[in-house]
Request: fold
Amino acid sequence: MSSIPQRDLSPLLRWRPWPPGDPGPEIWQIIQELDSRIQVQVAGVILETQIGQTKAHLQGLEKIHGIISQAKIG
Reply:
């Protein structure tokens, strides 16, 4: 099975690099040449990675909030 051309995909599925963290243009070219089932798997990995980054960012912000909340000002 060959890849589905971008023009045939829903606009929501037309993945494009979005810095920071997404693969560079040369990697996207390789991904676009993969079978559509593999493209969906790659999209899943990218989403899992972004979710992990977001969770780590949230944990850091919560720690900072806790420190600031306990700080005695003045």
About this structure: Helices lie at 25-32, 36-70.
